[in-house]
DNA sequence: ACGACGACGTGTTACGTATAACTTCTGGCG
DNA sequence: CGCCAGAAGTTATACGTAACACGTCGTCGT
């Protein structure tokens, strides 16, 4: 049924639009000078313009439907009150939430946020600015390819990095999640339940946040007698994860009793794999996720996972950028995370 | 464990930035006039500037790291190559995908897309432009509150509406999904399996797309002997949906054998409700979704649902806007949808 | 030999705003 | 009466770019 899109043509449509009124038009209509209009509308008229004139100007502006020309203002002021947010993909709920947080703080300060969805992973992402058709005051970047990072550096725009390596990034500020602590909590939880054979279903893309997880996990089990960790990489997609998890569970050697997944998406795939092999979660195999997406409570059993405060990441990132633009000292923040224990983890069978 | 965020202060940080080079700086360095630089870099020099000079200018520009000042260009040209996309919330995968589609078409034409996440449902959303700190060429709006619509009309910016009532919206173009056809396919599928007692788990927000679904469903079962449809509204959230579905399944009268949900999110909640009552999907109760989100294949059983081409909605919307801005006639499009049959539907028990 | 024409550029202007610097007027005070 | 201070505006300018309308050659046709 590959029915083609139906299309038809509407009426005349393109009406000729009258030119937008400028501040000079308002001035003329109100019988004052353009400068006065600018003063009044810019709220800088205290002691410079009489109350009566100010009111007159404001009314005239409203009647004419005056809206200031942003391009002209930006040119005059040399800043745009606009920040660029660079993320791998908006369809990942985590990044959508980061955007939401950043945009809400921005709005409070009359700032805007434009997005540059850098192609996932190592994709081109050569130049965020070829595509970002806006004048920018600063950049907030998350999980970004190094070529893109270089392009940003070349612009000498202030840069805030999110959830990425704090060392040598050249960023003016960092907002990080306490990923190491998160992984430690997950590991402690599983070890405490009695699990010893653990498989780490990891993201195939290697960025700082994922590297830290693997390293922390390795370190956390060191010295625990009998503990054994294996790592299996997977693309961040349910069915890729299902296949990877299936291989991990049915491979040679003793079957793992717990799967630590780098994302709730991977965990959902892992759950499907367990079921497909005729086993049950959490009775036979425990599964943990990461992120606490909406997905985590939509699947069954609901996922034990790490709640990452995505909105806060965006909020703090934007705040840091605003501080920099204000000439203030930005704060490097490390946000705490929390383990949310739900139904996908339990003691291993026979414990 | 409400551990507060740790913060610390980085080094000096705010280095004094050298002023960005302008086209005049490039001109001086290359020993030509600013006009020539503008011609060369604007690719309008064919037959006006010698090949050699053009090359010289381009090299000098690159060496100085020249990037044109967008604000100045926008002021001069009177357009910004920027569109505003108004959506309820980016954290809904559907809208994130609409954005992605719109942004990709925009990028091909050196356009940018800025977002205005209008508070969901009837929220304030008074003025998309108070928050949209960008100069705009046009607006694309989806599922928008009527106050916001009025604010947009007041700006005489060209408006393209997505998935909304084609009648009397004042939009210059519409991109719609064939929602009625979608609901007809769902209904036919379930009726064909033998279902007669059907509950419609509907969205509590009443926008065009949801109204059409209810109307179409009512019409589709008309004349089918014994067919009975009830409607239960719910917020677009898994747990709200679970509770609504639970009430629907355990209420008085004969239990429905099928749940038609207005969203995969609602369907996921419905599945949980069925399970909680000790019943099975699809053996005891069939469940259908809408949207075909990632969620649809993450839950078990995988959802029978309607695939909505979200990216295409965004793409067509942006194309229509570009057409309008070009002075061409925009196309009003109705995109076809398709029913995806997976594991959440089956014949009713005892059929 | 002379005018015309093409090739190659340049001078100049306007876009709409914010603001520094200047003018004008009124009243008050010595 | 003379002068100054403040109130209330206005004039003028710059931000960086794009593009229109000219200039200035050298060459070619007749």
- Helix percent of chain A reads 40-55%
Provide the succession of SSEs of chain A.
EHHHHEHEHEHEEHEHEHEHEHEHEE
CATH class of the largest domain in chain A: Alpha Beta
Q: What's the structural domain tally of chain A?
A: 3
Seen as an oligomer or otherwise, the chain set is homodimer
Structural class of chain A: alpha/beta
**Annotated CATH architecture of the largest domain in chain A:** 3-Layer(aba) Sandwich
- Give the beta-strand count of chain A: 13
Distance between the termini of chain A: 54 Å
The rough form of chain A would be described as: elongated
Helix tally of chain A equals 13
The named CATH superfamily of the largest domain in chain A: Response regulator
Which strand order do you get reading across the main beta sheet of chain A?
Answer: 3-2-4-5-6-12
The largest sheet of chain A, given as strand count, sense and whether it forms a barrel, is: 6 strands, parallel
CATH fold-level label of the largest domain in chain A = Rossmann fold
Q: What is the beta-strand fraction of chain A?
A: 15-25%
Q: Low-confidence parts of chain A, pLDDT < 50 over ≥5 residues? A: 8-15, 120-125
Structure description:
- The structure is a homodimer of 351-residue chains.
- Chain A is of the alpha/beta class.
- Chain A has 3 domains: 23-68, 434 Repressor (Amino-terminal Domain); 79-177 and 311-335, Response regulator (Rossmann fold, 3-Layer(aba) Sandwich), CATH 3.40.50; 179-308, Rossmann fold, CATH 3.40.50.
- In chain A, 40% of the residues lie in helices and 17% in strands.
- Chain A has 13 helices and 13 strands.
- In chain A, the strands form 3 sheets. A 6-stranded parallel beta sheet of chain A has the order 3-2-4-5-6-12, sandwiched between helices. In chain A, strands 8-7-9-10 form a 4-stranded parallel beta sheet, sandwiched between helices.
- In chain A, α1 crosses α3 (51-64).
- The longest helix of chain A is centred in the first third of the chain and has 16 residues, at 93-108.
- Chain A is elongated, with a radius of gyration of 27 Å.
- The model of chain A is unreliable at 8-15 and 120-125 (pLDDT under 50).
- At the A-B interface, β1, α4, α5, β3 and α11 of A face β1, α4, α5, β3 and α11 of B.
- β1 of chain A pairs antiparallel with β12 of chain B, so a sheet runs across the interface.
- Chain A binds a DNA duplex (30 and 30 nucleotides) through residues 22-24, 32-36, 38-39, 42, 44, 47-50, 53, 68-69, 71-78.
């Amino acid at each position: 049924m590959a029915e083609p899109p139906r299309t038809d043509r509407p009426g005349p449509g393109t009406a000729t639009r009258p030119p937008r009124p400028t501040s000079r038009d308002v001035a003329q209509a109100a019988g004052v000078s353009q400068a006065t209009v600018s003063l009044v509308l810019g709220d800088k008229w205290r002691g410079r313009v009489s109350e009566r004139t100010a009111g007159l100007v404001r009314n005239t502006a409203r009647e004419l439907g005056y809206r200031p020309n942003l391009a002209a203002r930006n040119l005059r002021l040399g800043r745009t009150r606009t920040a660029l947010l660079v993320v791998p993909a908006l369809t990942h709920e985590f990044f959508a939430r980061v955007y939401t947080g950043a945009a809400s703080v921005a709005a409070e300060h009359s700032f805007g946020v434009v997005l540059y969805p850098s192609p996932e992973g190592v994709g081109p992402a050569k130049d965020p600015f070829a595509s970002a058709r806006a004048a920018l005051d600063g950049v907030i970047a998350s999980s970004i390819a190094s070529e893109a990072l270089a392009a940003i550096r070349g612009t000498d725009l202030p840069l805030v990095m999110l959830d990425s390596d704090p060392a040598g990034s050249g960023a003016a500020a960092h907002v990080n999640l306490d990923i190491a602590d998160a992984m430690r909590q997950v590991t402690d939880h599983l070890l405490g339940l009695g699990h010893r054979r653990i498989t780490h279903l990891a993201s195939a893309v290697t960025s700082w946040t994922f590297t830290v997880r693997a390293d922390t996990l390795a370190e956390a089990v060191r010295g625990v007698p009998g503990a054994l960790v294996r790592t299996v990489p997977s693309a961040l997609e349910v069915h890729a994860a299902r296949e990877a998890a299936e291989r991990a569970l049915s491979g040679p050697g003793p079957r793992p009793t717990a799967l630590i997944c780098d994302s709730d998406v991977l965990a959902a795939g892992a759950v499907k794999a367990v079921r497909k092999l005729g086993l049950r979660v959490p009775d036979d195999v425990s599964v943990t996720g990461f992120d606490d997406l909406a997905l985590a409570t939509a699947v069954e059993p609901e996922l034990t996972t790490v709640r990452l405060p995505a909105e806060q990441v965006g909020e703090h990132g934007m705040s840091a950028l605003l501080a920099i633009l204000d000439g203030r000292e930005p704060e490097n923040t490390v946000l705490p995370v929390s383990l949310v224990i739900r139904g996908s983890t339990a003691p291993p069978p026979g414990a």
